[in-house]
Design brief:
It contains 7 helices and 26 strands. By secondary structure, it is α+β, with helices and mostly antiparallel strands. Strands 1, 8, 9, 10, 12, 13, 14, 16 and 17 form a 9-stranded mixed sheet that branches. Strands 3-4-2-5-6-7 form a 6-stranded mixed sheet, sandwiched between helices. The chain has a 6-stranded antiparallel β-barrel with strand order 18-24-21-20-25-26. α5 crosses α6.
């Protein structure tokens, strides 16, 4: 094989839109797709027919994203709508998330992998409760970049003081949440002002359009990627004459980079070895980066299987059975103390028990409501979990990929809760015997 050195790509941006009901999220997304020439002719024709059927003289661009029948009939966004588009400068995966309070869990889903969140505000209403809620969620999820789109500027006469007052209020609140920087943009999604093309009626604004911002916002391998992690998804053993002794460990690099010759530790076993080779798309490379799907070869023949984690020996996480986390409960059934669940972390799934629920967060200001006893759908709170086996978890603040997990109902496989690790015991306790008949006493 030819050995090459792969450089990290920064051409893909994942971003999400959020905001209160009727702030114009779907219209913004539709305008962004339409004006950037990312809409197919048959899609636009379908929107024009649907709009005419509703008595509208011009196409309702929100229909480009509100795909469910109930969404079209009610004129609201219910589900997360993902759209894929590209410009000459960058490729995008866009998540248009709901604004209703009862669909807060869907906003969490859409923003969980986002590198940028665009939060919309109706210029007539300013910062409202749901605006603060979405800003708080972006802060909890540690979305690296936040933009404020002050929409419907056409309905307030495109007045600069209106925009300035909203931008100051939101930026001050974001700073209290720990969001370091906010880019505020005055727009009219309906008219197209400052979405793709600069506005001709807001000459007092000299900043970027929405498209300019998403095309140029930094997307790189910063501090959140300093801990190199490779969850093993599959063990490759061709057992062919050409590859009689080949044993590779395949997966998608969750964070950081790996190099040939680097000393690594396999978790949770704690065995150490060195990387003897890295295969990427049929080529042998010297280094691989975050987001790349690779096959790693090791110098020593040690036991590695699906669910294990490969990490640099000098920066390996501690394994623990006791996890403290901030979670968003997404299921209709309540999460209660003593709840028996399956915990999926990376490619590993283990049994777990919810030991306590210390608090539920008030999302307006992230203040805690102590000992609620349970979490219901859309609640965000703190929980403590005991797992049947030690898990090599990172703090979510250090790694969004390996610091996150989901809780699953062991009965029907329903996703119950999405979690972000906040604190964990550094030294795992011995696994207790499973004397109980149901095997959940640990």
């Amino acid at each position: 094989m030819t050995r090459t050195t792969e450089l990290p790509t920064t051409t893909l941006l994942r971003f999400a839109t959020a905001g209160s009901v009727d702030d114009g999220k779907s219209t913004l997304v539709g305008r962004l797709l339409h004006d950037s020439k990312s809409v197919l002719a048959d899609q636009l024709e379908a929107v024009e027919r649907a709009s005419a059927g509703r008595g509208q003289d011009t196409p309702d661009l929100a229909l480009l994203t509100d795909g469910l029948r109930a969404e079209r009939e009610q004129g609201i966004t219910i589900d997360v709508a993902y759209r894929y588009f590209a410009t000459p400068k960058r490729r995008f995966i866009l998540a248009d998330t709901p604004g209703h309070v009862q669909y807060t869990r869907n906003m969490v889903t859409g923003a969980s992998t986002a590198q940028l969140t665009v939060i919309l505000v109706d210029a007539r209403n300013g910062v409202v409760e749901q605006t603060r809620r979405h800003a708080a969620i972006a802060a909890l999820l540690r979305v690296p970049h936040v933009a404020l789109a002050v929409n419907k500027m056409d309905l307030v006469g495109y007045r600069e003081p209106v925009f300035d007052a909203i931008a100051r209020e939101f930026t001050a609140y974001a700073a209290e949440l720990g969001i370091p920087e906010v880019t505020a943009i005055p727009i009219s999604a309906l008219a197209g002002d400052n979405v793709v093309e600069p506005s001709a009626v807001m000459d007092w604004y000299s900043g970027p359009t929405v498209l300019d911002h998403v095309e140029t916002v930094p997307v790189g391998h910063g501090p959140a990627h300093r801990h190199a992690r490779l969850p093993v998804q599959y063990v490759i053993r061709p057992r062919t004459a050409e590859h009689a002794d080949y044993r590779g460990y395949a997966g998608r690099i969750a964070a950081g980079s790996f190099r040939v010759g680097e000393s690594v530790t396999i978790l949770p076993s704690g065995r150490t070895t060195k990387i003897s080779g890295i295969d990427l798309l049929g080529r042998r490379v010297d280094v691989a980066w975050t987001g790349q799907s690779v096959t790693v070869l090791l110098e020593d023949d040690i036991d590695v299987s699906r669910g294990d984690l490969i990490a640099p020996t000098a920066d390996a996480p501690a394994a623990t059975q006791d996890i403290e986390a901030t979670v968003c409960h997404v299921a209709d059934q309540d999460l209660t103390v003593g709840h028996r669940v399956l915990l999926k972390h990376g490619t590993r799934t283990v049994k777990a028990i919810v030991e306590s629920i210390p608090s539920r967060l008030t999302l307006d200001d992230l203040s805690p409501h102590p000992h609620p006893g349970r979490l219901v759908a859309n609640d965000i709170g703190r929980i403590r979990i005991r797992t049947a086996e030690p898990l090599p978890v990172d703090f979510y603040a250090d790694s969004r990929r390996t610091g996150s997990f989901i809780l699953i109902d062991p009965g029907d496989g329903t996703t119950l809760t999405a979690g972000m690790v906040g604190a964990s015991s550094a030294v795992p306790e011995p696994v207790k015997g499973t004397a109980a008949d149901d095997g959940w006493d640990f």
